[in-house]
TrEMBL record:
Belongs to the adenosylhomocysteinase family. It is found in: Cytoplasm. It comes from Paenibacillus pini JCM 16418. Pathway: Amino-acid biosynthesis; L-homocysteine biosynthesis; L-homocysteine from S-adenosyl-L-homocysteine: step 1/1. Substrate binds at D133, E158, K188, D192. Binds 1 NAD(+) per subunit. NAD(+) binds at residues 159-161, 193, 222-229, 245, 280, 301-303, 348, 355. GO terms for cellular component: cytosol. GO terms for molecular function: adenosylhomocysteinase activity. May play a key role in the regulation of the intracellular concentration of adenosylhomocysteine. InterPro entries: Adenosylhomocyst_ase-like_sf, Adenosylhomocysteinase-like, Ado_hCys_hydrolase_NAD-bd, NAD(P)-bd_dom_sf, S-Ado-L-homoCys_hydrolase_CS. GO terms for biological process: L-homocysteine biosynthetic process; one-carbon metabolic process; S-adenosylmethionine cycle. Keywords: Cytoplasm, Hydrolase, NAD, One-carbon metabolism. This is Adenosylhomocysteinase.
């Protein structure tokens, strides 16, 4: 056992504390590959920005997230953490965090009632600050437990889906706390959403199916930053790539990036692999299943398991069985088989280990520094959805360059004056 506190053990709900040694190995591994977050940790240890405060975190609970929790803890916080998806929680990591003094309310694949209970219990600790992923914490606070809003100064949101929910609350004038949209930071969508999602989706698909991608057709549903990354990696693996979109500008971009663009009802006839990355519901549904090839493989890389309409798929199936871990076979009435990975949940975490440590290093540094920003300014920033300040984004990128041993140029004073003046452009 490490420096486990009595309170973290008493207040936690995890599967098995005996799993902790394996969890520590995972956390130690990512820590050694997260130099940006290590630098933030050193800053927090010196400054203690969260001393005496409580922080509740809801994120995909695996090793990289665990290290973020430890960095926030190093800043003086009492940390409680729970998962943001039933299939992405790793039980050994949960046990290790408890030994490190973090209160954990999570285990792999809880039933829906238990999963919701963990979220509520994490909020019942009456945190000062929160980190959310997908908006579950914020939704509970506004829809079910507004009594728990009183102590919360604000927080940060990790992903596109959560920001959609936050902006809907803000638009209706209902948002009761400031939330930083970490997903919209340059260092998040340019690197995490593109390179992280692109690689981790195919890590999970390849690990789960053990099938080749080269020579096959991959249909990417949605061409936002995540979709761009998935399409890029599919092309790199030798696939023919089809993109479906509802946004005309993104559709033109996908075309100019060299991909075929067409409606889903046409793409459905061609795809061997399907990856949804829209944040919206039912983007693959009834009519699409009717025309798919025998052996088509469906996966979702959006936050919630609503992008592939599982009810439509089940209604068309004469039988459903699990043929490999994280692969369900739906046999259609005409004999075709359609396969769904990770129950239609976030495939890169439901069937894999998520984004690479070096990618989440930057994202979680943004999270930690954004949380500090909220705590420093919560009395003046208002109850709104906030962008990550450019200074934080640039700081994280600078730490990353430093860790890589890369130097860049700096503007001279004369160049700065030239760029700042309307009259000096000669």
């Amino acid at each position: 056992m490490r420096s486990m506190s009595t309170s973290s053990l008493q207040n936690s709900v995890v599967k098995d504390m005996a799993l902790a040694p394996d969890g520590h190995l995972k956390i130690d591994w990512v820590e050694s590959h997260m130099p940006v977050l290590n630098q933030v940790r050193r800053q927090f240890e010196a400054e203690q920005p969260f001393k005496g405060l409580k922080v509740t975190i809801s994120l995909h609970l695996e090793a990289k997230t665990a290290y973020l929790a430890k960095v926030v803890q190093a800043g003086g916080a009492e940390v409680t953490i729970t998962g943001s998806n039933p299939l992405s929680t790793q039980d050994d990591v949960c046990a290790a965090l408890v030994e490190d003094g973090v209160t954990v309310l999570a285990k792999y694949n809880p039933d829906p009632v238990e999963y919701k209970e963990f979220l509520i219990r994490a909020l019942e600790t009456k945190p000062d600050l929160i980190i959310d992923d997908g908006g579950d914490l914020v939704t509970i606070l506004h829809a079910e437990r507004p009594d728990l809003l009183e102590t919360i100064r604000g927080g940060a949101e990790e992903t596109t889906t959560g920001i959609i929910r936050l902006k809907a609350l803000e638009k209706e004038g209902l948002l009761k706390l400031p939330m930083v949209a970490v997903n919209d930071a340059y260092c998040k969508y340019l690197f995490d959403n593109r390179y992280g999602t692109g690689q981790s989706v195919f890590d999970a698909i390849n690990r789960t199916t053990n099938l080749v991608v080269a020579g096959k057709t991959v249909v990417v549903v949605g061409y936002g930053w995540c979709g761009k990354g998935v399409a890029m990696r599919a092309k790199g693996l030798g696939a023919k790539v089809v993109v479906t979109e509802v946004d005309a500008i993104r559709a033109v971009e996908a075309h100019m990036d060299g991909f075929h663009v067409m409606p889903m009802v046409e793409a459905a006839k061609l795809g061997d692999f399907f990856v949804t990355v829209t944040g919206n519901r039912d983007v693959i549904s009834g009519d699409h299943f009717d025309v798919m090839k025998d052996g088509a493989i469906l996966s979702n890389a959006g936050h919630f398991d609503i992008e592939v309409n599982k009810m439509d798929l089940s209604e068309r199936a004469s039988s459903i069985r699990t043929v490999r871990k994280n692969i369900e076979e739906y046999k259609m009435a005409d004999g075709r088989n359609i396969y769904l990975l990770a129950e239609g949940r976030l495939v890169n975490l439901g069937a894999g280990d998520g984004h690479p440590a070096e990618i989440m290093d930057m994202t979680f540094a943004l999270q930690a520094l954004s949380l500090k920003y909220v705590n420093d300014h919560y009395q003046t920033i208002g109850k709104s959805v906030l962008n990550v300040p450019y200074e934080i984004d640039n700081q994280v990128a600078s730490y990353k360059l430093e860790s890589l041993g890369i130097e860049i140029d700096r503007l001279s004073e004369e160049q700065i004056r030239y760029m700042d003046s309307w009259a000096s452009h000669e």
